[in-house]
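**User:** I keep going back and forth on a fold encoding question. It is easy to fool oneself when nobody else works the same problem. Could you pick a protein and write out its sequence and tokenised fold? Could you put it straight underneath, so I can go through it closely?

**Assistant:**
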Amino acid sequence: MALSFCIVDDDPATRAMLENIIKESQLGEVIGTARGGEEGTRIILETHPDVVLIDWLMPDQDGLETIMQLKRQGYHGKYVMISQIENQEMVGEAYQSGIEFFIRKPINRIEVESVLSRVTEHTEIKHYLNELKSSLSKLDTLSQFSPNTASSTSIKPRTVDDMVRPIYMNLGIVGESGCGDLTAIMEILLEQQGKPGSFPPLRQLYEAAASRYKHTPREVDKEAKAIEQRIRRTVTTALNHLASIGLTDYGNPKFEHYAPLYFDFEDIRAKMKEIDEERDDGKSKVSIKKFLQVLYLEALDQMKNR
């Protein structure tokens, strides 16, 4: 599957180098180049490339501004940020804006080929999943009109555990005792969706999960404290797992997707440094609330699209 690319960078040497790498490595076709964000926006909206390689710092309009403008105008392709920036807060902001991959300046051919190959793989997987989803939808429609379709052969609805288990696998926490507690909390939150109010306090969630199998106030209180500890250990394990991946392969797709999504960048970086220096401070900082909020949003998204 050959992808189409647009390169937006104010440096002509960088544009030429990226275009040559894409052509010589047979990664796809460059269908447009631009010297700045405003020109890039116009070309991208005209050509609709699969992937946009965009410089962060440009004189007329920076990369993040351009991306937000493109999204507002209906372009939904993939973005690869080209940057020298190392500030983790800014990198985190870029990931939140929709960046999936980074290419560091100065340009390195091996890194460009590696990153764009992963972009191609992700696109092919997404295309395959969309085709599979379309085929299953057609099959489901046909089954509704089939007189021989028995209710016993219908597809079993996905449970909350079905939806979150792949996430647990990618976070490296399948089998951790806190996963059952996380799933119970997701079930509670999904049952309550649409009800007024902001995200519930953590203590309230722990007690709600505990009250599913404990009855007296004392038992519920004791179990809620145990749930809190199990979840904290599980989330810390996820942090350790992602930090270990990032330490060995900073461009790993799992690290690039899950690390900035579930954790603050400074916490990930601190854990990576701790692992690299072969020490364990035993004081890993994690935001349980952020972790639960992100997990809930991903579960909710899967439930709406199932």
User: Anything to note?
Assistant: Residues 149-155 have pLDDT under 50 and may be disordered. Residues 160-305 form one domain. The first helix runs from residue 12 to 24. DSSP finds twelve helices and five strands in the chain.
